[in-house]
Amino acid sequence: MEIYSISIGKTSHNLQIPVIQYPIGMIFVRDTKGFWKGSVDFLLKKTGFLGDGVRDCFGSVTMEKKINVLFLCTGNSARSILAQAILEREGNGRFGSFSAGSKPVGQVNPEALRVLTLIKHPTEHLRSKSWGEFSQPGAPEMDFVFTVCDQAANEICPVWPGHPISANWGVPDPAAVVGTSQEKAVAFNETYRLLFNRISLFVNLPLKSLDRMSLKKRVMEIGNH
Q: Are residues 54 and 157 in the same domain?
């Protein structure tokens, strides 16, 4: 299912149904029950999205498909989890952020949760899962796939629907650090910093104006920062 972001003034909502067309002030959508037609206000009420400032506004509605990004590492417990959380915040609603692992350990690293909680990231939804989930029918179609560990980059990945642009943004594994609790904390903080810098560069790329080859080059270059 395609995910769209709808903005009305300063209020944004996620719209998880296919949009057929929307002339000014009126939107036509389709779901399993058929077609819906109505104003912006009607549509948001019908789909359950309500917020401050929602109103029937002609000419002030912008609708944009979210850019889906999948972060991969082997265990999906630390680096890819951190990257998912960072993009969720830094993407300002423009991106769908996901993570997975080739051999998921089944739980998020407690130190990763500590770092994210300290910086006020939501963590309740984060989980360690297999990358196979995203190659199944009905899974979100990815636009970008980034490996954040060298081991996952060298493994044979599933065939991703939609042929996403990929790059390796490998960073050292903070969970592999052996030492005191302070030394482990320093390692996780440094991993967060590296991933934050790269994701900040990514979200500020002119994604709409670059062709596929240029985008591929730019996201690969980000992996060197």
A: no
Q: What is the DSSP letter of 30?
A: E
CA 55 – CA 220 distance, rounded (Å): 42
Q: Are residues 61 and 83 in the same domain?
A: no
Per-residue pLDDT tens, the chain, 225 aa: give them: 344 444 444 444 444 444 433 343 444 444 444 444 444 445 554 444 433 333 333 334 445 689 999 999 999 999 999 999 999 999 999 999 999 999 999 999 999 999 999 999 999 999 999 999 998 888 899 999 999 987 755 666 677 777 899 999 999 999 999 999 999 999 999 999 999 999 999 999 999 899 999 999 999 999 998
Quickly tell me which residue has 């590492």 as its tokens.
73
One domain, residues 180 and 73? yes
Number of domains in the chain: 2
> 145-157: string of b/e by CB count within 10 Å (b at 16+)?
bbbbbeebbeeeb
User: In terms of residue numbers, what domain contains 48?
Assistant: 4-65
